[in-house]
């Protein structure tokens, strides 16, 4: 599943960002408040190149991702996309693509779509990963979404699937997650892989 997710996400992001104007490439990505569109692409390209070359010291720390951005600050986006395509093809030949790489890529695709005012990531892209992650992250919770019930715990949560999926990757604040329809004590700390945002993010 993760090999297909990564390959298709890379193709979509290349199509999304190729030919953008300088103004669009310099646009701040609200989900990544310290990065522009260009810098998000630099990170995606850098992560793929690092994986292929084995340059994984410190991954996936902030320092590791910051290096991708710093090293490619003045590289045109067309070259970044070519670098990513070359590395991505080599990753496609690997026997197994890391879960983290696939999830990072579709998460940043969603970030870019929101920043550029494009349509939301299609349900068919993120919904299978929501189904896979929810019972693993939220043990003890039955999550009721538009896709049906996920998990079988005594606490129930009624929430839009996309909201929960974005929250898994730190794109929602604690206040936003607490405002969801919980039947009992909300295990907020069990949701995000990364610390939740300090400010609300509405997409």
From TrEMBL:
Asked if the Swiss-Prot or TrEMBL record annotates the protein with the keyword Isomerase, the reply is: yes
Per the database record, which ranges form the Mycothiol-dependent maleylpyruvate isomerase metal-binding domain?
Answer: 7-91
Isomerase recorded as keyword: yes
> Mind listing the GO molecular function terms for this protein?
isomerase activity
Q: Where on the tree of life does the source sit, at the highest rank?
A: Bacteria
Which keywords does this chain's UniProt record carry? Isomerase
One Pfam short name: MDMPI_N
Coiled-coil region(s):
none
Entry protein name: Maleylpyruvate isomerase N-terminal domain-containing protein
């Amino acid at each position: 599943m993760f090999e297909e997710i990564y390959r298709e996400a890379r193709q979509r992001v290349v199509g999304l960002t190729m030919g953008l104007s300088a103004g669009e490439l310099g646009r701040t990505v609200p989900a990544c408040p310290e990065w522009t569109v260009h810098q998000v692409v630099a990170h995606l390209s850098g992560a793929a190149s690092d994986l292929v070359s084995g340059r994984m010291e410190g991954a996936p720390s902030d320092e590791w991702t910051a290096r991708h951005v710093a090293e490619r600050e003045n590289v045109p986006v067309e070259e970044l996309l070519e670098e990513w395509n070359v590395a991505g093809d080599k990753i496609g030949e690997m026997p197994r693509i890391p879960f983290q790489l696939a999830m990072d890529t579709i998460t940043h695709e969603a970030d870019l779509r929101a920043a550029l005012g494009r349509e939301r990531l299609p349900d068919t892209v993120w919904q299978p990963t929501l189904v896979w992650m929810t019972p693993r992250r939220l043990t003890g919770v039955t999550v009721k979404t538009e896709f049906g019930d996920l998990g079988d715990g005594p606490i129930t949560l009624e929430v839009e699937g996309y909201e929960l999926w974005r929250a898994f990757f730190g794109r929602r604040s604690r206040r936003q997650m607490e405002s969801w329809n919980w039947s009992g004590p909300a295990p907020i700390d069990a949701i995000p892989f990364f610390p939740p945002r300090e400010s609300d993010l509405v997409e």
